[in-house]
Amino acid sequence: MRVARLHGVGDVRIADEARPSPIEGESLVRVTAVGLCGSDLHWFTDGGIGDAQLTHPLVLGHEFAGVIQGGPDDGRRVAVDPALPCGVCEQCLEGNRNLCPSVRFAGHGANDGGLREYVGWPTALLYPVPDSLSDADAAMLEPLGVALHAHDLGELQAGATVAVIGCGPIGLCLVQLARAAGASHVVAIEPLAHRRAAAAAMGAHVVLDAGADDIHTALAEATGGRGVDVAFEVAGTDVAVGYAVEAARPGGRVILVGIPGDDSTTFPASVARRKGLTLKLSRRMKEAYPRTTRLVSSGVIDVASVVTHTLPLEKAGEAFRAASDRVGLKIIVSPSR
Asked: Does the model's pTM come out above 0.85?
């Protein structure tokens, strides 16, 4: 089978490897679509993410979907949950599998991900998807799940006001989720023009240019001087965190979703303290696939419009470079058809 492995910073190589043989409890999955995530880009551009560093050639990709090959579920189209928690630690037993300290995760550390034609994966972590969803839609259920978990942490009430800072794919999903939950006013902040246009198309009431000289004045005007109930930071930069703290009203909530490149985050502490803000950090997701599948299949959330480019596995390096340059929105790689 064909595999794309990251050998070093910016060095993705295509090679032939043996097809995996599933062990007990696993199914063989022919991978049809893999989304490139911002965390994948940390591996591609920095050679690691946080305290995890590239120590051997790694198959990236944790947003993926495919078709089960063989066994009782042969031919079933599935979305793949990339997280393999231990299931027995305190966090797992409390229902916080995303916080499992010994979790293994596709495309991270020593665990190969989805950028290959076939994977062997635990059958219990393969979620059926209806035929109304495309392969790319099915792969998008994972980033939508990340957005959904962050949205849950925000505890939005009907009529709430919201800011989304950073309108990449997860930010755009958050814009839609906020509108679907009954937010009365959604402000989106984004430096790239094509992503601002996407945020407006997906329901943001006000879209601001993060690079504008008058952004602080514009932000105050957009929130009516009151601030928003919940601010989602989805960019992974200190500037974005600062905007989130600035946008939130006194007593409001700030949800940090973005992953900083240098593994540190700073924010205006005096402003956050005086406002008495609640800051929450969002990590991946919990049991989201049944909910995300229903949201997409019912038409409540549009993930198809978030996908702007699809490339074959042989062009995985080109796909990573395009994603790193912030071309379009979500870039999908198709290892097999």
From this structure: yes
